[in-house]
């Protein structure tokens, strides 16, 4: 999450807060591997401390495009709920009331978000989660002192120099007279290998998009993703790409020249570039688990792994196997 003011006062003395010190423990779960590992880690600590009932998992729903395609990977919300339920935790979904990410770009910003303008994170995620924190604080009914909230995020030092510089524990600038929010990055020091080790040991489901070759989950077409991830995502979600191409064209044709000049999905390449690379790489398809079953090209972005379409050739089987089409 970006743009958070961190106060240097009142920092806990260790990198691992005592969960019993807090009235509510909020865990942000995007459905991605780091969130998932953190969820398991904090849930185990909370169970050991006897405070599971104070823990709330929050998932940010970023919405759908104007043709109804989720900007996150299909099934992410279902997965985030299943993961929370696996640990017996309360699960809440929050979303921006007015516009999801796609509509915010199209109707309000007239531009894609970027690493230097991450309104997608601040407006779609952080602000919405903070509304939930406000609600949870009211619910906690603490009197005579500010309610204490521990807010957990799955950032890791290994991901980037900027993330490495972040403190594992810090008092969040959104603290006020009714609440003290302590921000905690429980898996800050974990390696990617350790994250996967924990996930496999837990037996809790993770998103199949990792198995399809994605290195990160996030939005399917995240402005911060690597080129390889974007091309693969474009092969897996051609209908979503078409919706992003619509935006790119509209942004380029708008009368505001300043915004038209930054119409591309990214400053270093466009969504049209990604779409062309995906076309060159060839179509992908899903088939039922039978090795002899022909994959059906992915043309309409309907491969929700938690609600897979049935195989027309083999009743009783579902199209879950990814293969070149
Ligand atoms: S996943 Fe990427 S595009 Fe989506 S909200 Fe996060 S930073 Fe923005
Ligand atoms: Zn089949």
TrEMBL record:
Residues 25-222 form the Phosphoadenosine phosphosulphate reductase domain. Gene3D superfamilies: HUPs. It holds the Pfam family PAPS_reduct. It comes from the Bacteria. SUPFAM superfamilies: Adenine nucleotide alpha hydrolases-like (SSF52402). This is Phosphoadenosine phosphosulfate reductase family protein. It comes from Actinomadura yumaensis.
